[in-house]
Amino acid sequence: MRGRRASAERARELDRLGSTTSNLAWILFQSRRYEEAVRELRSSLAVHPNGAGSLWLLGFTLVINGQASEAIPLLERAAALADRSSGFIDVLENAQGERLHWELAVKFYLHIGEGDGVATLAHYVGPNLQDRFDLKHARLLHHQLGLSARDEFASLGFDGPWRAELFVKGRLFYRDGDLSRTSNPPPELAGDHLRGWWKTASEWRDSKAGELFASLPRLGWMAERTLSAQEGEALVEQTTMLTERVATLSSPIMVARYECVPGNVWREHSRGFIVPDDWLERAADFANSNGRTAG
Q: Domains of the chain by range and CATH?
């Protein structure tokens, strides 16, 4: 089927310098020897855990092999690594021949409501105020999910019928980690969604005391990380550098707070965003505006 091949071709495009292992997995995938392909891809990812192409292909292979629940986190990570966090379309065929159209989005929003009344998705804004949850959600539901029903889609060889499904993953951040600000959360949110905190630069400086932090690059936004004892030794210096950076902060940054646990390893206690002191005022204006259609 063309949809299946197109999805796997994307995996190859993301990893043009693929290893012998990933090339073998591609051959096994084409031969529908899915169990063997899964083993090869897991072997490749054990050596190169950030291989976006291998993550894509493993995710697709698991779906086709009837293991969709295992595929979702892999495809989420592939999305982040491929810098496609604004949402993307993929067409798949599962083991029963059912044609699936998945819309996947990996998003990070900061909640700015005060808990007075029912919260709405408009109360969740992107850290750089270029995106808003209500706009993204509406676009995914009313535009993206309908793509597989269009004649143009069928003309490309993707004949239906398609079962369209939407998956939005990521994390939502609440001021000071105070969930009472959302006593009436939007019905669109899962009750067990991942949470974090956000603070202004001044609030973070006044509250951090002797806690240890590290800033997180964008590719580190998804999965929590445990640090070795040796890596943990660098946290004091990283916290000092972060404090200097926050003194003149001009845009939000994501950070993780670490604590030492038995075994002399460092685990994340929490993660959150530090935002400029004037960010909340601008965020409120953005939440109350017509916004911008999220892409």
A: 1-84 (1.25.40.10), 198-280 (no CATH)
